[in-house]
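During the reporting period the student researcher (J.K.) took over the structure-prediction task from the postdoctoral fellow and processed the backlog of single-chain submissions. One of the processed entries is reproduced below for the supervisory committee.
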Amino acid sequence: MRIGYFDCFSGASGDMIVASLLDAGLNVEELEAELKKLQVGTISVVASDVMRKGIRAKSFEFESRKLQESLSYTNILELIGAADLSQSVKERSLRAFDLLASAEAKVHGIAKDEVHFHEVGSMDSIVDVVAAMVGIELLRLDEVVCSPLSFGMGAVECEHGTLPVP
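J.K. obtained the following structure tokens:
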């Protein structure tokens, strides 16, 4: 059994998750080929080694020349559903957005199909989620677990204004 473990001592962002999968052996060219199946224009993946406070790590970035606006939950379902990705990658990606849409719907007091994502509906977030699911499949991970997430404090500026960091 192959298990992926994320040590989230300071949180985890989508690009950090994908970068760690690249560091664990995910092939950049294979990832890029799969992401092109999203049909969102030209996608190029850049993975590089970086140094952070004396520690080597991977960095994951991508460039796309299309679809920069944020999408609704329904639009994201259609985008991923229409892609020629494996059934497993589609199901996991759609499940991630379903969980996010459920949380957004609850916070805003609306139905899930009325949710319009802001930051999470950006192409950056969509590619991060799909890339992570592609990486999990290509690395043939049977299970993925993570350490407990630490709670922060302070505030963050986003589309809804200033919100507290949990």
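The committee noted the following: The chain has a mean pLDDT of 85.
J.K. will present the remaining backlog at the next meeting.
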